[in-house]
Amino acid sequence: MPFRRSERAKPNGRRIRRLRLLVLLLVLWLLGTSAFLMGLVTAVAAEIPRLDPARAEAKDVNGYIYAGDGKRILAVLRGSQARVLVDWSEIAPAMKLAIVDVEDRRFYEHNGVDVRGIARALWADIRNQRAVQGGSTITQQFVKNALEHDKRTIGRKVREAAFAWQLERTWNKRRILTAYLNTIYFGNGAYGVQTAAQAYFHHGASKLTLPEAALLAGIPADPSLYDPVTSPRAARERRETVLRAMLEENHITVADFRRANRAPLPDPDEVRLPGTQGQGPAPYFVNYVKGKLVDQYGAAKVYGGGLRVRTSIDLTLQQYARDAISKWLTDPDGPSAALVAIDPRDGRILAMIGGSNFRKSQFNLAVQGVRQPGSSFKPFVLATALREGIAPASTLVSEPMTLYAGGTFWNVENYEGSYLGTIDLQQATIHSDNAVYAQLTRLVGPTNVVRTAHRLGIKSRLKSYFSIGLGAQAVNPLEMARAFSAFASGGVRVDGSITGNDPRAIVAVGDKNATDVACTKPHVHCNEVVARHVLSPEIAATVNSILEGVVREGTGTRAALSDRPAAGKTGTTTNYGDAWFVGYTPQLVAAVWVGYPNTLVPMTTEFGGDPVAGGTYPALIWKAFMERALDHVPGGDEIQGFEGSPSLYGTPARVVWREDLRTHHGSLQLDNGNCREAVTLEFFPHQLPTKDANCRPNEVEVPNVVGKPLELARIRLEAQPLTTELVYKPAKPRQRLDVVLAQYPKLGRLSSYATVKLVVPRPLWGVVPNVVGLDLRRARQRLRKVELAPLVVRFADGRPGRVVAQTPRGGVAAAPDMKVSLVVARG
C-alpha cells in the first residue's frame, strides 16, 4: 500500500530540524571560540612588554642567603650578579648560529610555533618510546624563561604558544634571539650569554670563538648534565653535537669542525662568575645552595626575585672544619682536603669545606670532586649482606685470588699484601680486607650493592661492576656523609620537603615579602624533615657495632675520640691517589677526603715520608674537627652510644649466588650439590635461603664472544672449557667473514665441554682476493678470474705499476660483477 505524502515528509522534517540545530551549535561554538581567542590575543598582547629583559631587570629585587642562625647574610642574590644585558652587535656571530642550529633550526622560518618541529619531536619520542626531543621553538623557550615558573600543564603550554605567536607579530627575529640569549641559564650561576662568556672564558660575548660558542650553546638543554666543570666528557660530547649541527647547516667547514672539536674545555678551576670575591665564611656552600635554588625555582626568580633563603650551615662548625684541615695539611703545594658534616637527626648540612682558596678556584671538592672512595664504600656491601640475611660471623678466606666474575678475570690484592686467612665478616671489615670483600660482593651481587648505596643517599651513577665493593666507582664527600648518616640515625635517611632527594642545605625559603626567614612566619616555605626508612634498625645497629671496631682496633684508630664511642671507615685507593675517612656519632657525621684536586697524584711520601692512607690525614682531620664540633651541636655534649647490636651469629648453610645474566637480578640459593663456587655462610633466623640452585655438573659460565674474530672466540670458549660448533649464515657483499655474528646460548651456564653454537658468515659468491702488492696486470687477472670488476680510481706514490690499496679490502664476501677500486703507484 503506497505511503501518503504527509507520512513521507515527517522524517525529512526531523532531519532538517536536526541540521538547523547542528548549524546553530556550530555557529555558537565558532563565535565562542573566536571571542575566547580574541580575548586571549588581547590579554597576551597587553603582557608582551613585560617580557622585555630590560624591563624585567628594572624590577629586580635583591634576595639574600642567610646562615643557619637566620641573621648572618652569606650572599646577596642580585639580578645583575648573574645577568648583564647586551645588544645584538655585542654577541659573536658564532654564538647566534650555534644556538639556532642546535635549538631551533627553523627559527627564521616559523611564526613562533613550529608545527613541523612538534611533529618531528613527537615522532622521535614514539620511535624511542621516551621523550628524546623537544618541539619548543626558541621563541617559546624565551617566553617560558621570562614567565613565572609553575607546574607543567597543557594550559601553560597553550599560554606559552599564544605568547610566542603574538611576540613574533610584535618583535623581529633579531630582538627575540637577543632577548633569549640574555635570559637563558648557562649553569654555574651564569644567567645570560655575557655573564656566561665571562664566567667560562673571562671575556665578553662579542669575543666568543667557535669552540667556545658551541660549548655554551650546548649547555642550556641541561645545565647540570652538560656542565664542563662537573661533567667534562658529557660537555665535550654535547659540544660535538652542536658543531655537527652547524656543519650540517653549512655554517662551518669540515676543517672548522675538526679544529673546534679538538679545542680544550675551560679549566674547572678558572670557571667563576665575574666579580666573585670568595671572602665569605662558606663560599663553596653558598654556590652549592645557589645551584639548588636555580634547579628548584629557576634562575629568573633566584637572581633578582627577592628570595629570602635560610640555610643549614653552622658558621662555628665551618670554622672548626677549616681549622682542622689547616692543622694537619700545612704544605700549600701538598694535598688538599674536603670536609662535609651533617646532623643525622635532621639531615642538615652543618659544615662544607670544598677547597682551600675560593677566589683561586670555585671547583667544589665536596660536591663536584667525584673520586673513588676505596674501602670506605665497604659498609654498603656489608649492609647489603645483612639485608640478605648473612650474619657477620660468616667466614671467608683472606688470600691472594683471581675471581672470574662478569665475564672477566679479576685479580684481588690486599693493602700492603697482608692476608689473614679464614676470618669472619666483622674482622674483615675492621681490618679492611679486600680479598674477603671481593668474595662478599660476588655473593650478594653488585646490582644489590648499587641499590643499597642509592637507598642510603649516593646519587652518583654507579655501574654494577664487581669492583664496586672495593670502592672503584667515583662519589663525592657530600654523598658519603649523607649515606653514613643513615647508619647513625638507625637506618633512616633524612631529606627535606623542598628539594626532595637531597641533603637539607636549605632550611626555609621566603618570598620578597618575608621579613624573617623562620618557619613560623608568613610568606615562608619551611623545608620540613622527611624521614625515609632505608635500612632496618637491626641492620643499622649491626653496621654501627662493626664500624665502631674500625675506630677502636682497626684501620681508623687515629680517629678515636678520647671521651666517647665513634664509628667509621677508612678508604685508600690504588697507588694512594685518594684517602678517605667517614665517621660518626649519633649526633654528627663527617666525611673527609684528602688528595690532589686537579689530577690523580700518588701520595706515597706525604705523611712524614709514608703514604697517605685513610687512617692518616683523613682520620686525624676528622678527629680534630669532631672533638670541637660535638661540644657545639645540640645534645653533643652528652655522651651517647649506639643501639646494641643483635646477635652476630646464625645458622650455617652452603649457598651460592645465582644471577639471571640477562636481567642481572639474583639471590642467594642453596647448593644442590653441583655448585662449584658455593660457600658456607651463617644466616639470621627466618632468613635462610629456601630455594635450591639449578647448578649443572661441572658448571661453567658462557662468555659472550659475539663480534670477536672466530679464532679468538674459539680460544676463549675452550678456556672455560666449552666446545664450539659452527652455524653458517649467508654473507652480505663486503661483509667480514672471520667475525662471530651470534651465539647460542648467548649467556648463561653450561656443564664443562658442552656445545656453544657460533653463527659465522659464509660467502655465496666467493671471497674478494687481496691484490695489494701485485702489479696491475696480475691484479686485474686475479680479480676477473673470480668475476669481479677491477677499476683504477687514482694513482699514488710507490713502486710503479703496483697496487698500493684496494676497496673493498681482501677477505670480505664478494658478489657477481662487484667493482673493486684500485689505487696504483706510478712512481
Q: Summarize this, please?
A:
The protein is α+β, with helices and mostly antiparallel strands and 827 residues long. It contains 24 helices and 27 strands.
SSE blueprint:
Elements: H1 5-47, H2 53-58, E1 63-66, E2 73-77, H3 79-82, H4 93-103, H5 115-128, H6 138-146, H7 154-170, H8 173-183, H9 193-201, H10 210-218, H11 232-248, H12 254-262, H13 283-297, H14 299-302, E3 308-311, H15 315-328, E4 336-342, E5 349-353, H16 378-387, E6 395-398, E7 401-405, E8 408-412, E9 421-424, H17 425-430, H18 434-444, H19 446-456, H20 477-488, E10 492-496, E11 506-510, E12 524-526, E13 529-533, H21 537-553, E14 567-572, E15 578-584, E16 589-595, H22 617-629, E17 651-659, E18 666-670, E19 679-683, E20 699-701, H23 710-718, E21 723-730, E22 742-744, E23 749-751, E24 755-762, H24 776-785, E25 789-796, E26 803-807, E27 819-825
Parallel strand pairs: 1-3, 21-24, 25-27
Antiparallel strand pairs: 1-2, 3-11, 4-5, 4-16, 6-9, 7-8, 10-13, 11-12, 14-15, 15-16, 17-18, 17-19, 20-23, 22-24, 26-27
